[in-house]
Amino acid sequence: MLETRDLYKHFGGLVATDHVSLSIREGELHAVIGPNGAGKTTLIAQLAGELRPDGGAILFDGKDVTRTPVQRRAASGLARSFQITSVFPSFSALANVALAVQAHAGHSFRFWRRAAHDAALTGPARDALELVGLGSRAEVPAELLSHGEQRQLEIAMALATRPRMLLLDEPMAGMGPAEGASMVDLLRKLKGRYTILLIEHDMDAVFALADWITVLVHGAVIATGTPEEIRYDAEVRRAYLGEETV
Amino acid sequence: MRDHGRETLAVLIGLAFLLALPFLAEAAGKGFYVTLFTRILIFGLAAVSLDLILGYGGMVSFGHAAFVGVGAYAVGILSWHVFDGSPLMTWPVTLEGTENAFVVWPLAMLMGGLFALVIGAISLRTTGISFIMITLAFAQMLFYLAIGLRKYGGEDGIALYNKSQLVPPIDLFDRTTFYYVCLGLLVAFLAVCRRLTRSRFGMAVQGARINERRMKALGFSPYRYKLTAFVISGAGAGLSGALLANAAEFVGPAYMSWQRSGELIVMVVLGGMGTLFGPVAGAAAFLLLEEWLADLTEHWQIILGPILLFVVVFARRGLWGWVAGQGREDR
Ligand SMILES: Nc1ncnc2c1ncn2[C@@H]1O[C@H](COP(=O)(O)OP(=O)(O)OP(=O)(O)O)[C@@H](O)[C@H]1O
Ligand SMILES: [Mg+2]
């Protein structure tokens, strides 16, 4: 469904993406792990279209989208959530998600009807909020939501664009254990319904959820395989999992 | 949350006051206030149109007076041809001058929108300081272009011999009538903008201001919504220019000066960015201060400066936030 070929990106002398070739099959939950600064966010930014790679190609659904602008990629079904929460702080949670629904509904040249009273927007938006567990918080301005709730809102917005594939950048970043557990439940629900590229530091979550894992270190793929293979891969243990007991 | 009850009350009180103003002014023997408030309504209209892009869209246009000027010249030039008896153009079709308000006012809006389309299409490729500078540069170009219009008075502009004509019993030479026409148009424009800002289109424009990056990640192309808002804003400014030409019975390049653009921004900021009604209050505050303080000193803006600073620092959403309640926008 999504494929990269020899993707390459550098910032000055720093190689952030070092000839990365990935292949993510439809319906699969593919986790990318790696230490801080390994280039995971940079990889997602290139997949989403926000950053332009210096070399290599990105294929979505077999089509070369390497030079397709971010909004066109999003419109074609590639949704992303941000590591650092990126929402519309002054809008209510519902308005945030309704805007995402609107994005998918096509052009927004409708000038008269009040968006907040438009059931075609608020209906699906409420469903998405319900799904991520924010149903009761719909009217609360996003900036007044807790950190964990804002993370959930991120996911709800991505889902509301009715994507075919999700790029999730550390959805559990900064969450407490209870919130983290409910996020894992949510991801389990989403698994299979969407093709997912998941970046996550929580190894328990990754090994519980992933069908396939790619390990990134200094921008390069050092290993890729099933969770079992990765767990016992000597190089991975040395380079990354090292101290952690998995 | 903004206190909607309080805001509605403020709007109703404001409207009642504006409706009663001509009676109050005449009763107090201060008829010139009708003329002054006509100016307030006209500049209020221009400021509201600017708020659409500045407050809602986050586009700091420093050339808004250009669109006011374009609207004013549309009225002025057609009126000049009526007086002169010469046609506006003979090719490809012959067009005569006209003073019919039903023709020239929509035309003023059309021209304002058209110029906004061209200027916006280019300026909106940039953001931040570049955007401010490029809109300013375009406005200056139009300003000098107007000075170069020798036929239409050049630097001296055009003195109108007649006001625009509405249907017969309505005579715009009657200051009270003209006042109410301006009030009606301002109210109509506010009503339209209120719908706009809350529509899907309005949400897209506000989203682009608040978090353009996220908008793109959701699949929006912010440019087209911003440009559309820019055009609507230009059309509103064009209408206010048409009214201004009628109010002053004069059209000149000074309408497009950068100082005028700056004053419009001051009105919006003073009244409250992104509040829609605030800019009307801002225009009122600005022009009343000008009226009262100019008697004291010709450098009355020295006094305006600190007042503006005070409002910006202490009232986040300007005078309107103060009247209608501080609070969160865009629910
Ligand atoms: N815009 C940029 N300009 C210069 N360097 C950058 C830029 N963005 C990222 N980097 C650098 O590229 C490297 C990879 O960063 P990236 O954010 O992709 O890592 P990451 O794997 O997501 O890390 P984390 O786990 O901390 O989120 C880092 O060394 C970072 O400092
Ligand atoms: Mg990261």
Automatic annotation (TrEMBL), chain A:
Protein's name in the database: ABC transporter ATP-binding protein
Recorded superkingdom: Bacteria
Keywords of the record: ATP-binding, Nucleotide-binding, Transport
The species this protein was found in: Skermanella aerolata
GO cellular component terms, A-Z: plasma membrane
Record carries keyword ATP-binding: yes
Database matches in InterPro entries: AAA+_ATPase, ABC_AA/LPS_Transport, ABC_transporter-like_ATP-bd, BCA_ABC_TP_C, P-loop_NTPase
Domain ABC transporter: 2-243
Cross-referenced Gene3D superfamilies: P-loop containing nucleotide triphosphate hydrolases (3.40.50.300)
Any single Pfam family the record assigns to this protein: ABC_tran
CDD domains: ABC_Mj1267_LivG_branched
Gene Ontology molecular-function annotations: ATP binding; ATP hydrolysis activity
